[in-house]
Amino acid sequence: MGGMTERALGVTTGAVARRLGVSPTTVRSWEQRYGIGPEVREGGRHRRWMPGDIAMLEEMCRLTSSGIPPAEAARAAAALRRQPDPDVRVEPPSLPVPAEAIVPPGALTRRLQGGPGGGLPLGEVRQECRGLARAAVRLDGPAMETLLQQTMEAHGLVTAWEEVMAPTLHAVGRKWESTNDRYVEVEHLLSWHVSTVLRRAAVTGHRVSAHAAPVVLACLPGEQHTLPLEALAAGLAERGLPTRMFGAAVPAEALLAAVSRSGPMAVVLWSQSRSTADGVLARMVATTAFGLKGARTTPLVLLAGPGWSVRAVTAGMGRPHGLREALDAISALYAESDAALAEGGMPR
Prior knowledge:
- This protein is an alpha/beta fold.
- Helix content is 52%, strand content 7%.
- It contains 14 helices and seven strands.
- Strands 4-3-5-6-7 form a five-stranded parallel sheet, with helices on both faces. Strands 1-2 form a two-stranded antiparallel sheet.
- Strand 1 (41-42) and strand 2 form a beta hairpin.
- Residues 84-118 have low confidence and may be disordered.
């Protein structure tokens, strides 16, 4: 029904701006400066953007992200809306750069069919993901910050991470790998803003007891990918659970010392690739005992990330698939501990 309503009635400027990953002011300025506004206005006043209008603005974003001057990009994008048949490609107007550098063969047809935005291999994703991708390719830090925060507030952490942040990060990574190291700057800036939003969420979560057993979060030696653990830290804070984040490439000796000194309820070890998935070290962590003499205990170790194989999971370990599953597994540990304490057992 939503798609039918959008095709029949159009959408507002604010909704279009969120989809594109730009501010409403930018959309209005494009209309005022370059004449690429909606063809239909409700009651002659309110802007209502129809699918053809939106496709035109998406093309405008793609062209400007490629370095084409806005005025020239606007002329090429306007030709898209004038195209009556999506199976017949309109050649862009004469520009001072080769046409194939601006509109590759089939690009206009793909745009009319709702292809991925921002020049990134997104596939079928949420619309917020496309807006974030466009902002990332433009290196528009303020827009990324706003979109990420709005997505977190509107959909919650888990959905924001699994359906918007992670797919966009993966798309940037795939683009980087397939374009001879292009888009590295996009990946760095996007990662920074994702990390900023996640860390902000982690420090604004519910207050927890300073004496509660924490969850230790660490990347294995040689592993630099911390964003998934930052998402987990934010999710645990949201549930009022304490964490100790040790970050990237934690040396083995430091990891074991951290576990023995903090007495954690659980330890999450992240491995992005097989080369960093150290099963021997994971088993050492799982057998690290702490606590009062005669009542020592060991933590639950969760092997997180695509680097781990099923064979790596042994006694005292788990292998969550996704952020939500990890959060639920850790939350269950604290619920069990609280229940044991209520029954007069030993607290953790």
